[in-house]
Design a protein that fits this description.
CATH superfamily of the largest domain: Glycoside hydrolase/deacetylase
Helix content: 25-40%
CATH topology of the largest domain: TIM Barrel
Largest sheet: 5 strands, parallel
Shape: elongated
CATH architecture of the largest domain: Alpha-Beta Barrel
Order of helices and strands: EHEHEEEEHHHEHHHEHEHEHEEEEHHEH
Strand order of the largest sheet: 9-8-7-15-14
Radius of gyration: 24 Å
Number of strands: 15
Length: about 425
């Protein structure tokens, strides 16, 4: 296998992470980091130098300094305008690029700016419009993958014999089940409370709909699992689902995990693909909360659950990921925003989580998503035809760099009921286009 030799004066955990991210995770190329300059100069094959001094015969990238550090600090970032993108960590002239792509990727992918940030919304989540990706206008472009393609082109230009395979586009459809049923399995108190609420607000549609469902006259509107099954099988897409099994609370309102109907729906989606836990808002407030909910799902599916996505995307780094790791979670699908579409970590390739507080690599793999149904409808106020266009644009951005396009939908958004009228076709069009 062709290997790229990379010179760095000092090999640090951050340098190892960033270079592995570009070459092993995205470009699928093996690398060797070398800190001895003479050994590097005498080596054969493709060479990259990551040093303030240029090395003759190598592709030279000038470091900005971030990767030689180990502490977390307030970083004063300078930007370089490169190919129409405001790229962070501009550097002095002399190198191949006017910015440090390795420091930029590290800063963006590790979510450096979120550590200790006070820019939180009412639920305690980092705000998308406070991110540099939003402020600099590249939130909807996976710039780390774009830079990886540029580095690959530079390598091919100097070393034509270097084999770099084009990455293959991948699509993963994911469904969150926050509330399996609108009316069924709610229990006496919640059902009576629902009737009372409908009467108070003069919501006679839901009042009579609830009666019809409870009497078995019509199907529960959130029970869209047959439709999901039909579409996933029709378009043969990679599919994963996440179930909320937390105790009832202000933000956690699914039916009890002991419900046989709920367990049946979990089993149905398990036939389509991997099922994961959707850690509740309440789980963050209790010791062992994630593990308790994960064990509930373990007992239903009959094997250890290894994937997750946080309910309401409630997570703070690194605490949330540390809890997932302790609970035995191997992959998390929470990396995205609820208010904006795009690429929270500026990447569309699954990547290992690097904990800045311990300055070390973890075993958790992060799968970033690009678009969510409620974001399109509620935050961006889009109608279905606009939603289709937005999804296609994001999907094309990912396709151009051979990344992984991940979407988030909910069983209730496929109900064609009330405010979700017209949105089922958006999901179907997405499966048809992105899955092809």
């Amino acid at each position: 296998m062709f290997m790229i030799n990379i010179f760095v004066p000092q090999i640090t955990p951050r340098i190892e992470y960033s270079f592995n991210l570009y070459f092993r995770e995205i470009l699928k190329i093996d690398i060797h980091l070398e800190s001895n300059l003479e050994t590097f100069k005498s080596s054969s094959g493709a060479k990259i130098s990551y040093h303030t001094e240029l090395v003759e015969g190598a592709l030279n990238f000038i470091p900005a300094g971030l990767l030689s550090e180990s502490a977390i600090r307030a970083v004063d970032i300078e930007y370089a305008d490169h190919n129409g993108i405001q790229c962070p960590f501009s550097v002095a002239s002399g190198g191949l690029l006017p910015f440090d792509p390795f420091a930029a990727a590290f800063y963006l992918v590790t979510r450096y700016e979120e550590y200790g940030s006070a820019n939180k919304d009412r639920l305690g989540r980092f705000k998308a419009d406070e991110s540099i990706a939003f402020k600099k206008g590249f939130l909807e472009k996976p710039v780390v993958n774009v830079w990886a393609m540029e580095i690959a082109a530079l390598l091919k230009g100097k070393y034509p014999e270097l084999e770099i395979r084009d990455s293959e586009f991948r699509f993963i459809s994911t469904i969150d089940v926050d509330n399996a049923f609108a009316y069924l399995e709610k229990g006496m108190l919640r059902t009576l409370g629902g009737f009372a609420k409908s009467i108070f607000y003069l919501d006679f549609y839901r009042f009579f709909e609830r009666i019809s469902v409870l009497l078995g006259i019509r199907k529960d509107p959130y029970d869209t699992f047959d439709h999901i099954t039909e579409l996933v099988k029709k378009f043969k897409v990679d599919f994963k689902s996440f179930f909320l099994l937390g105790d009832y609370g202000t933000l956690d309102k699914n039916v009890p995990h002991t419900s046989k109907l709920l367990q049946d729906r979990i089993s149905r989606l398990l036939e389509l693909g991997e099922v994961g836990i959707h850690p509740s808002a309440g789980s963050a407030k209790t010791h062992g909360g994630v593990e308790k909910e994960k064990n509930r799902l373990n007992s239903i599916v009959g094997n250890p659950v290894e994937i997750s996505r946080q309910h309401y995307l409630l997570f703070t780094l690194p605490d949330a990921y540390t809890k997932l790791i302790a609970a035995g979670i191997k992959s998390d699908y929470s990396m995205g925003y609820s208010t904006h579409v795009g690429f929270r970590a500026s990447i569309c390739t699954p990547f290992p989580f690097f904990d800045l507080t311990s300055n070390s690599l973890s075993e958790l793999k992060v799968f970033p998503f690009a678009v969510m149904d409620v974001t399109l409808k509620n935050s961006l106020n889009q109608v279905p035809i606009q939603g289709i266009k937005t999804i296609n644009q994001l999907s094309e951005e990912v396709r151009m760099v051979g990344g992984t396009f991940i979407s988030v939908w909910h069983n209730e958004s496929l109900s064609e009921n009330l405010e979700w009228s017209g949105w089922s076709v958006v999901y179907e069009k997405m499966l048809e286009q992105a899955g092809s």
